[in-house]
């Protein structure tokens, strides 16, 4: 999650645009945090987060640098948005299976992107 902080740019430095068809390929799904563990091997403070994305997607894990604003206890039971169709990525001893989404602030802290009210796990952002 939030690996480089760099954003893709178009030639000339402007914001890169994508087509509607490209956007529809991104599987942004809702899920509920089941478990949060410390990730002491991480270079930057991070958690190992396990999320239930419903029957179709299942349970997936990721590493996320959200320790500035969230305690482990405050994350369990919270609904989040994750990109679930990226290929898995090995981050040290953790196999990251989805990208937890959030907004990186100027100080590096991350505010999670979440549904504004409870919804079923596995719903796709439209």
Summarize the structure.
The protein has a domain at 28-112: Nucleic acid-binding proteins (OB fold (Dihydrolipoamide Acetyltransferase, E2P), Beta Barrel). Helix content is 11%, strand content 33%.
Q: Tell me the Rg in angstroms.
A: 15 Å
Q: What is the H level of CATH, i.e. the homologous superfamily of the domain at 28-112?
A: Nucleic acid-binding proteins
> Which structural category do the helix and sheet elements fall into?
mainly beta
| Contiguous uncertain segments of 5+ residues | 1-6
CATH domain topology of the domain at 28-112? OB fold (Dihydrolipoamide Acetyltransferase, E2P)
Largest sheet: 5 strands, antiparallel
CATH architecture type of the domain at 28-112: Beta Barrel
Mean pLDDT: 92
What fraction, in percent, of the residue positions are helical? 10-25%
Number of helices: 3
Beta-strand percentage range: 25-35%
Backbone shape: globular
